[in-house]
Amino acid sequence: MDGPLLTVTQNGLRVLAIEVPSAPVEYCGVIINTGSRDELPGEEGLSHFIEHTIFKGTGSHKASYIAARMEEVGGELNAYTTKEETVVYSILPHGYLSRAINLIAEIVIDSQFPENEIDKEREVIREEILSYRDSPSEAIYDDFDELIFRHSPLAHNILGTEESINRFTSTICRDHLTRFYTAPNMLFFYMGATPCEKLLRYVDTAFASLPRNEAPLRRIKPEPVQPRKKEIATDTHQEHTIIGSPVPGMFSPTRHIYALLNNILGGPGMNSMLNVALREKRGLVYSVESSTALYTDCGLLTVYYGCDPEDNRKCLRLVENVLHRLAEKPLSQNALLKAQRQYLGQLVVARDNREQVILGAARSAIYYGSVLTPQEVTKRIESVTSEDLRKAAESLLGFSVLTIR
């Protein structure tokens, strides 16, 4: 796999290309620097709504054409929305790249959002909202965002509400594309065997009519909040709990410290400190995990677990004990080296998933203007000290707690 190429097309669209000679599968798409955080009051859920309805017809083709265009050659057309970006991309057998690029360009530039189609998709999203609320282990993350980010657009659910999605019309969707789907606010990404010169010719032609106006991003950093505790009463057989604290955002030089700390605390390994304390030693939970959500100007590190109601106090105390242990005494040098080796090994395994590699590289490129090499990542993780981790753990001690019971 060759190193990434970052360049700009004639109309100002940034392009990230990673050439992989002889690869039988290609990946391409666009990442747009807009998500649920950029929605205006009354637009809650619009970015996600557009992610669904952008495939429902253009000025040239109906939804049936768009749905079949990549599938009929064995490829896929996908999309997803986060709080700060929207991604539309295709995975395809080598040899059909111009077909994929032309299709993606057509839908992000010329989607028309026919009213009959968006009425049908409104029902699909309504069901998605209802099914999501039926899963408290997932919904609790949104409830926690509302607790921490109240009075900020980061607080609201990406899906929106039944009331908000009922307001969306063809005109509203088109206006959103006009505002945000512009060359300065987007990046095209590619991974596969097609030479970069040929790729750039395809992209230049397909995206020639992409608007060049600047997008009106107005992100305001949320106000800091004091630690809070909240309980939500529902009818569940388990109690679901999130414990979390604000952490620095994606541009902070400390982000690699928190990434390593998160892996030690409650990462995917069975030997994470929380999994050992709550599950392996005591059998109190089926799963316990920690995760980070890093935004452009802020972030969260959270710990989630679900347990029997009578065990919740004990589980909460055990999580607190683990956090205090990490904050009060630095890891030994041997423990630090083991943690670094495990985390870096996980990254090596993750790089075998090329879909996630190119999606992660695209996100890095649109925000940082570069993509870290594996060697650079290794250097940053190996530079983390035990005292760095102790200070980061100490910063988590003013945590908030949310329980669904």
Which terms would index this structure?
405 residues; alpha+beta; Cytochrome Bc1 Complex, Chain A, domain 1; 2 domains; five-stranded mixed beta sheet; 11 strands
Explain what you see.
With 405 residues, the protein is an alpha+beta fold. The chain folds into 2 domains: 5-206, Cytochrome Bc1 Complex, Chain A, domain 1 (2-Layer Sandwich), CATH 3.30.830.10; 229-404, Cytochrome Bc1 Complex, Chain A, domain 1. It has helices at 46-53, 63-71, 97-110, 115-133, 136-148, 162-165, 170-180, 196-206, 255-266, 273-280, 312-328, 333-350, 354-368, 374-382, 386-394; strands at residues 5-8, 14-19, 25-32, 76-81, 86-93, 186-192, 229-232, 239-247, 288-294, 299-307, 400-404. The strands form 2 sheets. A 6-stranded mixed sheet has the order 1-2-6-3-5-4, with helices on both faces. The model has no long low-confidence stretch (mean pLDDT 95).
Task: Give a brief description.
The protein is 44% helix and 18% strand.
Could you outline the blueprint of secondary structure elements for this entry?
Elements: E1 5-8, E2 14-19, E3 25-32, H1 46-53, H2 63-71, E4 76-81, E5 86-93, H3 97-110, H4 115-133, H5 136-148, H6 162-165, H7 170-180, E6 186-192, H8 196-206, E7 229-232, E8 239-247, H9 255-266, H10 273-280, E9 288-294, E10 299-307, H11 312-328, H12 333-350, H13 354-368, H14 374-382, H15 386-394, E11 400-404
Parallel strand pairs: 2-6, 7-11
Antiparallel strand pairs: 1-2, 3-5, 3-6, 4-5, 8-10, 8-11, 9-10
Helix pairs in contact: 3-8, 9-15, 10-11, 11-15, 12-14
